[in-house]
């Protein structure tokens, strides 16, 4: 039997009904969610490894013949669960706009140049300390049509799996001091200022590489097992 | 909630979720993502719709299911709904899981305009174990049909309605708080 997850702390997530982000209007459920306690399927993590998701590539600046334009950066951090346990071997997927704020996707109509040397897709597995590390360029901010003069602050999209399907997280990492924060309803959908701050990376001298790249640190915390309730019920081998 | 082992737990506040956004299509879908089991004899497909009944062409649907012996973990699929709001998976019918649930597929739906993904499930029509399924038992009678696939000539169809229509919204898919 899979281990139940902590149910506390999820108030950090945005409300799905957030009118300032207009696309939520017709895409959030209006009826109450049905509580699901201890479901085996959702408390199990998919075995992903490196197989089904394709090649692992943590250097987004080395995927083409030339070097992409923009500020080269290192983005690194630890993936851990809500109990502080580092999560090793976790698949981390990232995607982002290029330095000009343009995605390498045909549907992106923003009038900013594509970069033939930058796709903006990366994957890696966390090491034994739960650490991930990407080399990339700092994405540019980009406009969208949510409201007049709507610009998204620069961000990198992150996808994580954790130790259960119910621990899955898709989110965005922001850069410190961006003046667009107060005007961005996606970021402001996280209404607790402290929780919002947890989506902002910190400039990090340790991650910075002399003469080569500035470094940013961003730790990610996923839902973890509910040890406070179930420790005594677990079999000796830890269950699961 | 019991706190007897609280001292062993170094509490860490969670990282908040954000929408997958509109432009994940060049990044997350992968060849074979919709093929949960190569040469599987079951096709599961459907359309994701919004509260106006319009197809949602920028959703990402992920599936986790048990194998025919009821073991969960190895069978995972991912399918974008571009360009017409439709998804389709090739797989096999799962066995019943050890928690007493009838055979089912667990679904995650991500989309632009969805700030935190949604959990739902697909159950099988004409499955006698559905009557004893502890999850279906918690779902109001008049909404249970939103979790049960409909046979058609392409396989089994499960349409996902992110938001119901009208005052009652009774056609809204049942989503779970896991
Ligand atoms: Fe984005």
UniProtKB/TrEMBL annotation, chain A:
Listed GO biological process terms: 3,4-dihydroxybenzoate catabolic process
Name of the protein described by the UniProt record: Protocatechuate 3,4-dioxygenase beta subunit
Source organism per UniProt: Glycomyces artemisiae
Gene3D superfamilies linked: Aromatic compound dioxygenase
Alphabetized UniProt keyword annotations: Dioxygenase, Oxidoreductase
Residue spans of biased composition, Basic and acidic residues class: 1-19
Residue span, Intradiol ring-cleavage dioxygenases domain: 75-103
Family named by the database record: Belongs to the intradiol ring-cleavage dioxygenase family.
Automatic annotation (TrEMBL), chain B:
Organismal lineage: Bacteria, Bacillati, Actinomycetota, Actinomycetes, Glycomycetales
Protein name (Swiss-Prot/TrEMBL): Protocatechuate 3,4-dioxygenase alpha subunit
InterPro entries assigned: Intradiol_dOase_core, Intradiol_RC_Dioxygenase, Protocat_dOase_a
Keywords recorded for this protein, A-Z: Dioxygenase, Oxidoreductase
Origin species: Glycomyces artemisiae
GO MF assignments: iron ion binding; protocatechuate 3,4-dioxygenase activity
